[in-house]
Specification:
By secondary structure, the chain is α+β, with helices and mostly antiparallel strands. Helix content is 37%, strand content 20%. Strands 1, 2, 3, 4, 5 and 6 form a 6-stranded mixed sheet that branches. Helix 3 links the parallel strand 3 and strand 4. The N and C termini lie far apart (63 Å).
Length: 177
Amino acid sequence: MRTLAITAVLVCALPFGSMADKPRVGRAAMRGMEESLDNKLQKLWPDDPVQVVGLTQGVYITGYGAVFMSEVNLAPGTGITPFHQTVTADEVKRIHEKKMARLAKLRDTMTNMLLGSAKSLDAVPVEEQIALGISLFYWNWEDRSGLPAQIVMHASKRLMLQAKSGADKSFITTEEF
């Protein structure tokens, strides 16, 4: 009777599915992807780099997939300091134009980073998603007209792996807020 009771308790304690049939996405894989994304963002414009505000953070959500978030300042400018106490209208205009001009390349780079992450994150199941979100940094004095606060892209890992280079990438959902 005691053996039967112990067996019943052990069976009840086991999850209904085996953890062995779902690969675990390790922290090392996520960290490697975070570093890769940071490096790509910092090298977008080598002669006049963007400012990565903090480091990219990634998380794996079982049943959904991998999510990566970063924040960048597309056109770092001189902020308000004791030595630069006001921002001129020309500076505001120049920074706004620079950020507007850089958006297209940022979007293309994000698409390529997303596709590359699908190939690199082997442990993420193909039926799950991979998402990349980039928040754009602004000073309170900036002209934000026409500029998003955040760009989020995501797609099924399966579709990204099936995509051929140069092919239609309409399966990637892009949202701007």
